[in-house]
Amino acid sequence: GVGSLSESPIGVGMIGCGTVGGGVARLLREQAEVYAARLGRPIELRRVLVRDTRKARAALPDADTLLTDDADAFLDTPDMPIVIEAAGGRGAVSEHVQRALQAGKHVVTANKSLLAAEGPALFQLAHRHNACIAFEASCGGGIPIITAIQFGLMANSIRGMYGILNGTCNYILTEMTQRGKSYAEALAEAQAAGFAEADPTLDVSGRDAAQKLAILAAIAFGVKVDEQQVWAEGIDTLDLQDIRLGAELGYDIKLLAIAEQVDGRVSMRVHPCFIHVDEAIAQVHGSFNALSVYGHAVGHTFYMGRGAGELPTASAVVSDLLNVASGWYPQAFARMRLWPDTHAPAKVIDAGELISRFYIRVNAMDKPGVMAQISRVLGEAGISISAILQHEAAAGQFVPVVITTHEAQQGPLNGAIAQLEQLDVIEGRPVCIRIVEMPAG
Ligand code: NAP
Ligand code: HSE
What we know:
The chain is α/β, with parallel strands linked by helices. The chain contains 16 helices and 19 strands.
C-alpha cells in the first residue's frame, strides 16, 4: 500500500497513453532512479489501458507487456494502488475512475472536463473509500497552481484570480498577432504540438478554460461550482481587425479566465479581453499559461509556466504521483476540508451586475452627425466615453469607429449596444470586447 516504510516498488496503472500519458511514461522511465531516490522506493508502471493496443507508441517501448484494452483486466491488476487517468472525457473514463476509487485506489488525473462536471461526486466517492484524487495537471499544465492555492496560500481568503488558462488559445492569439498567421494555420499547429483537446472546439470556445476556472474557483473560494455557472466566450468569433485596432490603443488581446469573490458571492467568466501591454499577463505568449491570485494577506501573487504539451503536463502528473506515493497527500485528503464535496454551492453574481471598461467597434457611415448619435445612445445609458478612434475614409463610406468607455455595468451596456445596432447609420452588429485592468495588490 501507499506510505508503508518498505523499499518494494509501488505499482501504478495508467489509463491513456497519448500526449500526456506518453510524457508520463517517458518521465517514469528516464527519471526512474531520481524518483526512487526521492521517494525511498521505485515506481513501477504495471499496466496501461488504451482503446487500441495495436497503435505504435514511441513513448512505451515495453508496450507488449503493459498495454491492454480490457478495463476489467486493468482494474484487477494486482499491487496497483495508484491509477493515473490521462485519457480525457467522461462516460467510460468516468466509470473507470469510479471503479478505481471504489477499489480504494488513489487517482491522479489531468481531466478537467471530468472534474468540472463530476468533481464533487468523485471527491465524495474517494473520501468514502479512503482513497484520494490528485489533479494538479487539470489546470494550468505544468504550473503547480492547485498546490499553490490549496497549500501555499492556505492562510488566505482568496479575493480574485485572473488567468490565461488555455495554451491552445494563447498560442493561436500569439501566432496571429506576432507572426501574422491565420487562425486556421495557428490552430492546426497547436493541434500538431499536442496542446489542443481531442475536440478543439472545447479550447477555442473558451469551455476548456471555463472548466479549469470552475475547478480553481471551487478550491480557492471553498465552494461547490457547477461548470454551467461559468459563462464563456471564446476566440473563435474574434476579428483580426479588432486585434489590430486594440493594439493601436495600447492593448493586447488575451482569453482571460476571471473569478472574483465579493461579499460571499462569486463571479466566474471566460472571455477575450484587451489588457494594457504593460501588464505582466499581457506578456505571456505562446503555449504559456499564467494566473494572478489575490489573497487577503499575501496580496498579489503571479504564476507562469507552460500550460499544455507533453512534458509540462507530465511534470504535473508525475509530481502528483510522487506526492500521492509518499503518503502525505492521501493523509491531507482524508483529514482536511479543502475539496469541494464538503463545500456549500456557490452563490453566483448575475452577469448584468458586472462592471468593466469596454472597447466598442461599430461600422458607421462617415457623414455629419453620426458621432453625435452614437454618443447620445451611450450617454443616455449612463456610459462615459474614454477615447474614440476613427481612421479617414472616403466620404459616405462605412468606416470602423472604435470607442473605449470608462467603467460601465454590463446590463446597461448591453442595452446601449442593442440600440446602436438599430441606428441606420450603423452597418452590422457592433463588436464589444471588455478592457480588463488588473487590481492593484
Ligand atoms: P490524447 O493524446 O488524445 O490521448 C488520449 C489517450 O487516452 C489515448 O491513448 C487513448 O487511447 C486513451 N483513451 C481515450 N479514451 C479512452 C477510454 N475510454 N478507455 C481507455 N483509453 C482511452 O489526449 P491528451 O492530450 O494526452 O489528453 C489526455 C488528458 O489530459 C485529457 O483529459 C486532457 O484534457 C488532459 N490534458 C491535456 C494536456 C495537453 O497538453 N495535451 C494538458 C493538460 C491536460 P488510444 O491511444 O488507444 O486512442
Ligand atoms: N487543451 C488544453 C490547452 C490542454 O490548450 O490548454 C491543457 O489543459
